[in-house]
Amino acid sequence: MSNPAEKPEVVQLPAEPVSAPSASSRRAAAQRVREARDKLTSTSGTRPAFDAEMLRQYAQTRLSASYVVMLLVVATGVLFGLWMQPLPAAAWTGGMLCIHAAMIRSCRRFLTEPASPAATRAWRTRFVVLDLLYGLCWMAILIHPVLDMVTETLMMFLMLLVIAVSSMLAANLPIAALAATAPVAVAMALSFAVTGSLDNYILAALALAAEGYFVLLAHRLHSSTFATLEARAEKDALIGELEQAKAISDEARHRAESANVAKSRFLAQMSHELRTPLNAILGFSEVMKSEIFGAHAVAVYKEYSADIHNSGVHLLNLINEILDLSRIEAGRYELNEEAVSLVGIVADCHHLMKLRASSRGITIHEVFEQAMPRLWADERAIRQVVLNLLSNSIKFTPQGGEIWLKAGWTASGGQYLSVRDTGSGIPEDEIPVVLASFGQGSNSIKSAEQGAGLGLPIAKNLIDLHGGTFTLKSKLRIGTEVIVTFPPERVMSALAPLSDDSPPLQPEGSVMPDEKRRPRHKPIMSAGTGS
């Protein structure tokens, strides 16, 4: 029998990590898609909103220059009436004024109607047709056979004036500007070219060159206006995004404030609910541990009572720490400031923790500068900071280790406190973790004496309330040092004694004349002397 075919081994290649697009790239892609869609639905290759705005500016420009165009038409009709029969000149003037009136009426109607893509295309076509009629009327008068007696220079000047005015008025609609000026320029160029003279050929070339120049100028003006509209649209979009982001941030802030208030209320309620039974547990366990009402029948019960009491004390301290941290984060922690001695507080905390350190075989060294002035600070807060730092050092320092407590002057004139130990240390990447609320490093998790992770955050926040700095330096398997500094503004330097004599209680000029004549060795009043 033939062996069955072996199944090929399929090796799965490691998938390449797909990086998520950033917010800026997503915004740029969305903008490109929107621009492409707008160009497909637009009649001019731009955004539909820009088409309507361009037509609006075109209509406003036409309305603002309506009297200038009327004056130009009437002056041209009167001037040509002197060279031809008055009736044809009047008919041409009337036709031009009718076209101009129709254009003005169309512009006003367009400005009053709501904008829509279909209406924009219709109005665009209507304006182009009106400008084309406007240009054809100017062409008819400029190439009239009766005007052969008029010099070519005057005709060239009039043509340039018509082209310049039409190009400037229709710059926001380039196709309309071309429709209004191209018939005039082409007709004048042909009129000059048919004569066959060199001068007229030059004038024909100049007419075509002037048409190209003014068309290019109108295109540049249109591009500048379009760039301005784009910048304004981007600004409006950015303002909209900022307002949306502000609304979102305000809503998030309100939610955070509501959550913070709810957390504070919950902690206050729970602290009351927990402290009430805790006080009973601590009181009765202490009575049982001390055997106030007699010895236990079983000796183990005394150890159990001590364990219950120690656990209750630990829970009470944890509740107090959580409440302190919540008050600090909510900005409701009030400092009870007074003149305190930093060295004295550190020495008291050392005395409190000395027994605990001695039981672990840890030696604590004191390095204090003498004659240091007092600090203007909260004694309870500083004592809590020192106890938290010292208890952490004792907790993570192995047996036989050493701890140094230092207090002295800073270079700027403030005072500092330093707690350095020879413990296991903290990795650099875990320093932000241990400074965060409820944060614990890897060494703390492995340690038998785990805490809640609130000692360092509370100490740091209390120092921040005093305007000081909290610096944590640590090296793995070498030790940790925490340096706390207080600003010079909190140092209460001793005042120098007054060198001048104190002023008299009563000025010399206010002494009565009788008192001046009284001898100075006699008392003012003789009380109980009988004289």
Automatic annotation (TrEMBL):
Residues 15-31 have a biased composition (Low complexity). The keyword Transferase applies. Residues 269-490 form the Histidine kinase domain. CDD domains: HisKA (cd00082). One of its GO terms (molecular function) is phosphorelay sensor kinase activity. Keywords: Kinase, Membrane, Phosphoprotein, Transferase, Transmembrane, Transmembrane helix, Two-component regulatory system. It is an enzyme of class 2 (transferase). Its EC number is 2.7.13.3. This is histidine kinase.
